[in-house]
Amino acid sequence: MAYWFWVFVFYSLAGCFLERAYAHRTTGEEHPVRRCLLFLPLCPVYGLGVIAVLALPASMRQGIWLPVAGAAATTLVEYLYHWACEVLLGVKFWDYSGVCGNLQGRVCVLFSLAWGGLTALALWFIQPPLETLIAGIPPFVTYLALLVFTADLVCSLRFLAVTHSVEALRGEA
Fold first, then answer.
1. pTM score, two decimals?
2. Using alpha carbons only, what angle is made at residue 141 by residues 138 and 143, rounded to the nearest 5 degrees?
3. Helix residue ranges, H only, 28-138
4. What is the pLDDT of residue 31?
5. What angle do CA 139, 145, 151 make, to 5 degrees?
């Protein structure tokens, strides 16, 4: 389980930096608005997306199939994550409604293609050294990181619940 936790954390962190770089490049935002569930610089949808790709059969993670399977798996995760955040938490962290080829504003063809390419690059070039790094992490560091992550998740969910309640009282929800 420690392995999956660290894969999740690493790619969630990398995704957060990717989001910030993309926002800065496309909109000039120095400090982009919150687009992630957590207060920590982690975007869980990226970590969950890579875990979904790693969970695919080995035959789908090889050669030309990897970008295709990566695009499909990460798009499914992105759709389900968006749906869950919207339905369960009452928030939308992104909206692709204005992008051609979108499905309910949750996913779009352009980003699905990007995720396919990014997951292929990640699994071909980042994952092998990352696995070596993860193997060297002592258990107490994993426990400490899991404690911090859990505390952040609880605080983030509480913040969203309070914020959503205040918005509902104002009639903004």
1. 0.92
2. 110
3. 44-54, 65-84, 109-121, 127-135
4. 65
5. 140
